[in-house]
Design goal:
The structure is a single chain. The chain is an alpha/beta fold and 518 residues long. The chain folds into 2 domains: 260 residues, FAD/NAD(P)-binding domain; 125 residues, FAD/NAD(P)-binding domain, CATH 3.50.50. It is built from 18 helices and 16 strands. Strands 3-2-1-7-16 form a 5-stranded parallel sheet, with helices on one face. The protein has a 5-stranded parallel sheet with strand order 8-15-9-10-11. A 3-stranded antiparallel sheet has the order 4-5-6, with no helix packed on it. Helix 1 packs parallel to helix 15 and helix 15 runs parallel beside helix 17. The longest helix is centred in the middle third of the chain and has 19 residues. The chain starts with a strand and ends in an 11-residue tail after the last helix. InterPro entries: FAD/NAD-bd_sf, Flavin_mOase, Flavin_mOase-like, FMO-like. GO terms for molecular function: flavin adenine dinucleotide binding; N,N-dimethylaniline monooxygenase activity; NADP binding. It holds the Pfam family FMO-like.
Amino acid sequence: MEKQVAIIGAGVSGLLACKYTVSKGFNPIVFEARNSIGGVWINTVETTKLQTPKPAYQFSDFPWPDSVTELFPNQYQVLDYLQSYAHHFDLLKHIKFSTKVLGIKYQGASDEEMQSWSLWGGNGEPFSSRGKWIVEAQDTQNQHSTEVYQVDFVILCIGRFSDVPNIPEFPPDKGPEAFHGDVIHSMDYANMDYEIARDFVRGKRVTVVGFQKFAMDIAMECSIANGVEHPCRVLYRTEHWHVPDYNPWGVPLPYLYLNRFSELMVHKPGEGLLLSLLATILAPLRLAFSKFVESDIKKKLRLAKFGMVPKHSFLQELNSCLIATVPQGFYDKVEEGSIILKKAPSFSFCKEGIKVQGEDTTLETDLVILATGFKGEKKLKDIFESKMFQDCILGSPDSAVPLCRECIHPRIPQLAVIGFSESVANLYTSEMRCRWIAELLDSTFKLPSIKTMEKDAEKWDQYLKQYSGRYYRRSCIGALHIWYNDQLCKDMGWNPKRKQGFFAELFEPYGPADYVSP
């Protein structure tokens, strides 16, 4: 009997999971809550562009069309590219649009039996004659209509940067309810039509909370709409090494951080003595690379002039997957006074606006936009109906999410997670993971014991805490993406070395095109 695979989400990861499971002879069903593909690219702010240079953000077997000449395409160009990919590989017929998954429930072994397993799923296989997943889905056009599906394997491609906004908590009577103006999340702003969004902020004193990409894009749009008459205030907690481009002092950034030589400078999970010794010896060079990039950013963006020089290193920014491209002209807007940067470790609301902790002056404002991110962990947890799975999927709050190869939870059978762990180019990384999952489903290889997988997750947790600091829960593999891909390649029986010649292998940057074929 044909095994049924369910994929939840039709963003980039969902499309890839669909394409590669189809290539192995499966007929997956893809659930998508919205009426189109694209995930986070469906709703963005008008000025948002791709964060990763185009060559690093492309499908290995489906390059960008020649008509897209920009290095950082805009929302429409990215959506067109994703649509073209879906049409080219005939993926749309597998997608159930406007179908929201309310929850998934495992039907098979009891919680006690699963806890006693030494192998994933009890047999180390992706499928089981005993176990099934029950998927409850709702028609978003008719919320009274729900359907139940029984499937053999679930691939979660629900992302971590959408749907569940992260709203800061405030003391009683000091939250948004105390404020006379409007408070929205960046998600609400992005969901507006471009013209409606412009009209919504025009003529208002706007405060944007946050300093990642969404916050900077929204601040730029507000400054364009209102100029110096009503400057946009940006409240931030931490300065960041946002980049003006990917060519510090004329050197392409991939030659500094996206080749094998750069990864020799980093201690790796489960590394041997030789690699450990090399990483220790090359530590000064790693620091020098970071200082080199930092000096370029400081000069181009005039960070010292605006008091925006971060206290942490660029390397930590990279290792935390927090790098964002600064909108063109952002600091020109700061200089002219249409954007005001204000450091605020914490703040609260009052009737007239915002009070920053430790200051008496009220920052009068009409509109507050919270660009404070999303609760991706809650989104992942809440899709499970089982209390046991809810408790174990995220692991301990003091450790990174314990996924083997950042895809498989050792204690949750017949299920994979794609797109939760981050990298410097998420499409590229998701494609490798989806190929790995497809090979696993096709029995090309088997997973090791649960204990072995858990020990491996612990080693990655130690690595993340060492290099990502307080951002370890982001599970960023940015500084070790080649090492990580090597593990996937070895599992699948591929040669991990993809370049021609010793020097090319060591110094040339790796990208999607290097993994076109096994």
